Structure formats: structure tokens, C-alpha cells
Amino acid sequence: MCICFFAGVHSITTVSKVSVKTGKSISIPCLYGSQYKNHVKYLCEGPKWRFCRDVVKTNKADPSGKYSISDDKRQFIFTVTINNLTNKNTDYWCVVEINNGPDYGGHFQLSVTRGIPRLYVDHQRITGYIGENITIRCHHSNSGEMKWCRLGRNCVTGSSGSIDGAAVTAHMRDPNVFTVTMSGLKSEDSGWYLCAEGDIQIPVYLTVTEKPITTSFDLKILIIPLSVLIFIVIVVLFIWLILRHSKSC
């Protein structure tokens, strides 16, 4: 196996370092060139690419269940998930398999800790509704500059900006919390985002969908017909009792 790294269309865009707690799971997105949408993708474990080992491929599942992989060929992003993390799980490579040529990929590192991660979110996968807002809280332990980015696209720093037309506002009013709000959501806003502080990022997948239609049932509309029904039952019982009494006399 040979993994090579090139600039431009032959590069993979992914995180550089993610802080995560021992025993937890993490999902990592890997953005690749559109011309490789039908190629096999895989995750390779190890600090040096020449000696890393394949742990899961899009055409070969991991029987242990520790690793999983999925490929979104519409957005050209494959996602790897690593479960039950230990401090031995630190260096990985997102790789695209090239037929009759060297594979290419990108390296990321996991900082696995027993304590609170340096940067984390409450939920790595969130759902928003078309036309509405979504708020993400990024918990951090340092006081460096915070960013909200879309994978492979632009970032918002400071208190306001936009990503692909979606308005983004941010603040740090709560201690050690970077709060991001995206407004006027569209279905095209679905995808992978990164909350970043220095060399640490945490990926967040946003799904934007139609808001479910909920019908609220007003019990008050039943009061009148229910009262009439009860009245009718009482009248019928009253008549039945009178008839029964008259027959027994």
C-alpha cells in the first residue's frame, strides 16, 4: 500500500485534531475530490502512513464493530466512526483507494482523555428545520479564538457572518461556551461543520428537514357533543326505569 498526498483536487479535507473522552465514540468526516465518488474509501490506523493498517473499508465492514464507514456520494464526504475509544487510538488516515496508482489521504489525530475533552459539543448530530434557526453550544477549556466552519468551505469568526447564505451569529457570554446560531436554514445547509479553537476541532453534522406537521387537539370541542350524549343517556335510562316500574305494578 502506498498513500500519497497532493495539493488541490488530490487532497482530503478533514479535521486535524479532536479531543474526546475515553470510552466514547467519535465520527470524523473526510471530504474528497468529486472524481473519486465511486472509489473505495478506507480508514487506516497508525502514526506513519507507510506502516498504518486498514481497519475498515466502504467495501469491507469491520467485524469487531469498533469501526464503521459510510460514503455520501452527493456531498463527496465519507464518514468514519470509531467506537469505545482508548488512549491507544490516536493517529488515523482517511484514504481514497486509487486503481492502478498510489492511494491518497489525509491524517487526523485523536486526543483521548479520561477527563473533560478540551473542546466538545452536547450532540455531534443535530436536526434543524427549514426556515428556522438552530443553536449549537461548543464547550471549550481555553480562551483562544473560536471559529464555526463548514467542512471544506468558509469559517465565521467573531460575532456574525454567513456560510453559504445562512446567517451565523455567535457569542461567548456563558463561561467556556461558544454559542453559535444559524438562521434561515435551507435543506442545502445539511452537512458537516466544525467548531474550532486553535488546532482542536469537533465535527458536527447538521440535518435540515421539513418541520413535522403536528395537529393539536382541543378537548373543548368535545364538551358540547359529550354533554348532549350524557344527557341523552340519562333521559333514556330515566324512561327505561319508569317503563320498568310501570310494568311491575
Automatic annotation (TrEMBL):
GO terms for molecular function: transmembrane signaling receptor activity. One of its GO terms (cellular component) is plasma membrane. It is found in: Membrane. Residues 117-214 form the Ig-like domain. The chain crosses the membrane at residues 221-243. InterPro entries: CD300_family_receptors, Ig-like_dom, Ig-like_dom_sf, Ig-like_fold, Ig_sub, Ig_V-set. The keyword Transport does not apply. The keyword Ribonucleoprotein does not apply. Keywords: Membrane, Transmembrane, Transmembrane helix. This is Ig-like domain-containing protein. The gene is LOC120432765.
